[in-house]
């Protein structure tokens, strides 16, 4: 069972998201919060697998709350619920350890897929969201798009063909289990590759790995 906490200051939004999650028998909503400060207490009390986190909220915004949750309950993954006007928050959420991003206007099936992916240790970047995340993240970093691409390609130099393959699949948002199935290996092998990639690339989470994969043109972004 995947245990989830919902965080949004709009009760109607929480009700809608809960209805979608309740349609999946493998997901259980164990708590809700209407602001970031309360969310931290709820997460500490329930220690869920996944938090669905709104950004703009009273008392404490979702970005600050994400940082607190990642530090206090490191086993919990945080999925950020964004709108089209929230792009400038994305870099901050990445820096604080968010595990993925969802558009509030997205397909309900994507919400379920994202929750499962994060529970399985993945970072969720759907094709639609990924382009926005990469773009928003890039605007906060110095240099042109070409220079960032060159920097990413330099960082992946020295990786084996298999490591590059794993990197591209992480960039596509696949979990360790999904990558293992795709490559016909055991999940422990994928975890070992992922740990090696973290060390080689000097990153802290799978979203940062995914960003490097996208900048290095290792991910197929076609529809």
UniProtKB/TrEMBL annotation:
Q: Pfam families recorded for this chain?
A: GerE, Response_reg
* Sorted UniProt keywords: DNA-binding, Phosphoprotein, Transcription, Transcription regulation
GO terms classed as biological process: phosphorelay signal transduction system; regulation of DNA-templated transcription
- Give the protein's recorded name: Two component transcriptional regulator, LuxR family
Q: Does the keyword Phosphoprotein apply?
A: yes
Q: Which GO terms describe its molecular function?
A: DNA binding
Q: From what superkingdom does this record's organism come?
A: Bacteria
Q: Which CDD domains match?
A: LuxR_C_like, REC_NarL-like
Give start and end of each Response regulatory domain. 3-119
> HTH luxR-type domain location, by residue?
152-217
Residues modified as 4-aspartylphosphate = 54
Entries under SUPFAM superfamilies matching the protein: C-terminal effector domain of the bipartite response regulators, CheY-like
Record's PANTHER family?
TRANSCRIPTIONAL REGULATORY PROTEIN NARL-RELATED, TWO-COMPONENT RESPONSE REGULATOR
């Amino acid at each position: 069972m995947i245990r989830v906490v919902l965080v949004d200051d709009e009760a109607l939004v929480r009700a809608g998201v809960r209805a979608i999650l309740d349609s999946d028998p493998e997901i259980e909503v164990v708590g809700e919060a209407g602001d970031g400060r309360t969310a931290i207490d709820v997460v500490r009390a329930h220690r869920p697998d996944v938090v669905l986190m709104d950004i703009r909220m009273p008392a404490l915004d979702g970005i600050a709350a994400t940082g607190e949750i990642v530090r206090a309950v490191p086993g919990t993954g945080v999925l950020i619920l964004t709108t089209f006007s929230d792009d400038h928050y994305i870099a901050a959420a990445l820096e604080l350890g968010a595990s993925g991003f969802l558009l509030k206007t997205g397909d309900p099936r994507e919400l379920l897929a994202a929750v499962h992916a994060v529970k399985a240790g993945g970072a969720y970047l759907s094709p639609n969201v990924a382009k926005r995340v990469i773009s928003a993240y890039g605007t906060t970093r110095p240099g042109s798009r070409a220079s960032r691409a060159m920097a990413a390609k330099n960082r992946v130099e020295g990786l084996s063909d298999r490591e590059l393959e794993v990197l591209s699949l992480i960039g596509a948002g696949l979990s360790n289990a999904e990558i293992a199935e795709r490559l016909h290996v055991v999940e422990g092998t994928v975890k070992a590759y992922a740990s090696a990639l973290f060390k080689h690339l000097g990153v802290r989470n799978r979203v940062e790995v995914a960003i490097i994969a996208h900048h290095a043109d290792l991910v197929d972004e076609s529809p």
